[in-house]
Amino acid sequence: MAIIQKIQQKTGCLFLLILCALLIFVISDLIRTERGGIFGNNSLNVGEIRGEKVSYEEFNVRLNNMLDQLAQNNPDMKIDENVKSQYSEQAWNSFLQDKIFKVEYEKLGIQVSSDELADMTIGDHPDEQIVKAFTPEGGQFDKNRLIKFLQEDIAADENKNRQWIQFEEGLIQNTMGKKYAAIVKGAAYTTKIEAKNQFADNNDKAMGSFVGIQYATIPDASIKISEDELKTELEKNKAKYKQEASRDIEFVSFSILPTSEDSAVTKTWAYENYEKLKIAKYDSVFINIMNSENPWDGAFKRVGSFDNTIEPQLFALDSGQMLGPLYKDGKYSIYKISKVRKDTAAIFKASHILVPLNGRTAADSINAQNRLNSILGEMKSGKLTFDQAALPNADGSGQVQGDLGYISPSSTSVSKKFYETALRAPEGQLFVVADESGLHIGKVTSPKSTKIIQVAILSQSITSGRNTIRNASEKANDFLTVARNAKDFGKVAESKGLSKRVAFGIKETDMTISGVTEPKQVIRWLYDKETEEGTVSDMMSFEGSFMVIRCSKVKEEGTPKVSDIKTELELAVRNRKKAEKLEKKFRKALEKSKTMEQLASNVGSVQMLIPEQLFGNDNIPGVGYDLKVLGTFFGISKNKFSPVIRGENGIYVVWLSNINKPQRPAKWTDLQKGSLEQLRMEADAGVMDALRKNAKIKDERYKYF
Hints:
4 domains; six-stranded antiparallel beta sheet
């Protein structure tokens, strides 16, 4: 609140949230926006960060506050499960901010003073979101407009005052995040030796050859593997095979989407009610009694207010006339013109070519006028079309041939001067107008209309009827009865003419599951302590389907079971045994070989040339990605056999013939700076990842959200 008091001293007012743009700013980077919770001791927890529990209650409060703000600032927005999931992620990120980064800020003494915050709002260095919110299209930041706006509005609205305080907190956290990143980047340093090494990695070209035999040349069937060998491989390489907790499933779906029978029922409803609406004395009462999905809206609508596929037909009707029933997007609708009036102002479509003023001097105006005259001349001669000339429009309308849509006196897309000039122009005729955005070559692209209509809309979506739902439920229960006691889930599905689907590696924190519309419900069941490998679920109800699921595999976090990764273990053990055989073959061959040609002949392979290889390129033609081979090639002496290399896919011996080293730079300053910038980028991301990893984050939101 300190900044509020300081601002009051300067402006004599309280402040409100700086338009929707600022809310977007807060939401877009909520990892830095919210303060810590006020709860904490709750038996229900949604996760753990740095050993501290995050309670269900404090998480739910924060999430609901965010959703409430979203609803207030976007009253027409549908807040569905997808939106809630996105905001759940943002709320979780804000807890990471509290419990990870806030601690780091305190250690380093990072803070934002009240003077600094004032400077970022009403001072000489306003935040970019404030500048954006108070800069008119094509104009410059208007600080007086900001102050006037705040002085007149915020004191009367406590909700807006509260939102401003939240924005202020977000700005503080964002600024501290930038300071922390600056400290991390400032600590990075590259030496001249590192710059030299980087230059060599990217410019020194090594030439030579290799002889290799891939493991795949030995038949897998010739290698015998025991269970003990698999256990030994896993025991010796636990870190390599460490796994996250996951689940595999197989499932069958039973659709409850509307059928043709359901569609016919809704269509009949529409035709039966067409005549009833036609003779209704009070349209508003009839629409409300019938519980239309489009409730009564008594407002008079201009052209441009309806779907463009039906709007011309609607505005061609007179009072009392009807349109429909019409089907679109799973819904039948009937339209009745309740009343018709004439508006005081015309509405119509227009397009423009915008020639911006790059400045406000007389020279700028002359340059813009010359450009406009040039465009008009080229259009008149046929060298340039209107659509082509509109492409560079600074307002983005060039992507739609300069189309401004419908304009009226209240339009924000055009100035009042533009509208009034267009109003006087005949349809299709070019006109020129100058306003604060620049110079315009405009044209009216539709008839001018003053007609406004009041429309009653009776509509109903096609929904699944009782028979559809009952039939699907019976099929699902019938399948469940058999599948619950069967050994093979897939065979049961096949016997009933159903398609079994599968999904692998499902984690607690997953947001999606292929083939499943509501994954949270499935994940809660999968990670319930009662759900074991082989467990079959009860019939689950989703939007559009019933589903029966079997948990086909349970993998716990940590060292896996041999059976979980048997294929991977077999490959490792098999390749090791093949490598041992091939190594012996290579060592014997090296004893009687003096050249790479002789070595290739003695092992039954061929010599492959390495014409030019950079150390910075980790892919060797003929070998592929193999850092052992690459490192050995650049680390051996010239014209000598390398040691036998046990590579990723085979056994190799390399021979270095020469290394071409280009002229070194006279000064290393520029390259050192480039290396430093790269290091800073990597350090910034790397530190954040390290902090998260060390925090031992446990996310269990799936249980509740």
